[in-house]
Amino acid sequence: MTEPIVISAKNLGAVAMPGFCPRCFWLQMHSDGIPYQIFPGIFSSIDSYGKKLVHGWFDRHQSAPPWLLPLGDIKGYVNPPHYSKFSVHDADTNIILRGTPDGIMVMQDGSHLIVDYKTAKFTVHQDELFPMYQVQLNAYAVIGEQKGLAPVSGLALIYTEPVTDDDTAKKDTYQSNSGFLMEFSAHFRAVDLAPETIPPLLAKVRKIYDLDRAPKSLKGCEDCALLQDLIDLTGS
Ligand code: SF4
Predict the structure, then answer these.
(1) Residue 219 C-alpha to ligand 1 middle, in angstroms?
(2) Residue 10: burial class (beta carbons within 10 Å; 0-12, 13-18, 19+)
(3) Based on the structure, what is the number of domains in the chain?
(4) How remote is the CA of residue 212 from the centroid of ligand 1, in Å?
């Protein structure tokens, strides 16, 4: 019997990135935490604010906010469940896959559209992260099909980009005695439904996790060389 593994939809997405490092992944999965991980909380606050705006609008107007119209004929929303309730067990690999989608829209035909908010300018860099987001959303689709969201009919990324041009900054209405407002413009990118991509990734996770030792470093990775220098310095 293999040891159970718990993995988030987002961490599974990392496995699909072109520069994926099995060694980094093995170390992360076998440790209680990796040092020097600092992520500014402001981005998740903005993502969560976007969710509150959308849900609040639905509650007050019984319709989707106008800026969400490109997503199709939405009739309502479902509050995204906590990851403890939004998980599935894959019997083939003994892996529990879990996560919490940012948003779940109910379409006119009763199907569900799962979305993820990304506070970012839509740049080439965001495009580079697309393979990760694609897996993350498809993992939510796989979980959703078994956890009350069937059928899942679509997946989408909603990029909310700060509007910071000079003309906007000149608007007096954006300033008040307590501070200033910042506008965000929304950009949408549909993600193909491809639930069949998830089982091979789970199998890959199981294979790497079960290795007795961390795999070799990626060739040419400067960070690993720096880490080795630190270890040599401390004489460990
Ligand atoms: S090779 Fe680079 S990416 Fe891989 S474990 Fe080392 S530091 Fe991490």
Answers:
(1) 9
(2) middle
(3) 1
(4) 17
